[in-house]
Amino acid sequence: MAKRTKKVGIVGKYGTRYGASLRKMVKKIEISQHAKYTCSFCGKTKMKRRAVGIWHCGSCMKTVAGGAWTYKDAKMEPSPHELSWWKMRRKQEAPKPQIQQKPKLFLERKFHKTQAEWN
Predict the structure, then answer these.
(1) pTM listed for this prediction
(2) Residue 112 per-residue DSSP state
(3) Which of 13, 42, 56, 106 could bridge 60 with an S-S bond, Cβ 3.0-4.6 Å?
(4) Quick count: other Cβ atoms within 10 Å of Cβ 23?
């Protein structure tokens, strides 16, 4: 089968319609939505888009909610300001006191028979 598109790739299906700049934007989105992503559960590159915001791993069969066009949206990752805030907050928190375990009690076993009856 002959190659139909040389430059335009996946948006060749639109032909000359909609304008070049719009087709370039759509190309970027369609490439990212049809790509396979690395699963955050099993680590394999099997995460595919099922519907808007629904992603499914073909390996571990997990279905998760994610971004509309990419698995992890830019909004899902914390900003540098948030990261520094969380680090500062962790430093301010007092360390949790260690819970001391109670010493184990060694109880003598009590038998129904006396020592003399065993002999």
Answers:
(1) 0.58
(2) S
(3) 42
(4) 20
pLDDT band at 1, cuts 50/70/90?
low
Task: Give the separation between CA 115 and CA 119, rounded to whole angstroms.
Answer: 7
Order across the sheet with 47-51: list the strands.
47-51, 54-57, 63-65
**pLDDT tens across 15-66, in order?**
999 999 999 999 999 999 999 999 888 889 999 999 999 999 999 999 999 8
* Dist CA 36 CA 27 (whole Å): 16
Q: Which two tokens stand for residue 40?
A: 């955050």
Q: Which CATH class is domain 35-90?
A: mainly beta
SS3 track for 41-88: CCCCCCEEEEECCEEEECCCCCEEECCCCCCCCHHHCCCHHHHHHHHH
Number of residues assigned to the chain: 119
Indicate the residue type of 119.
N
User: Using an 8 Å Cβ cutoff, are 76 and 67 in contact?
Assistant: yes
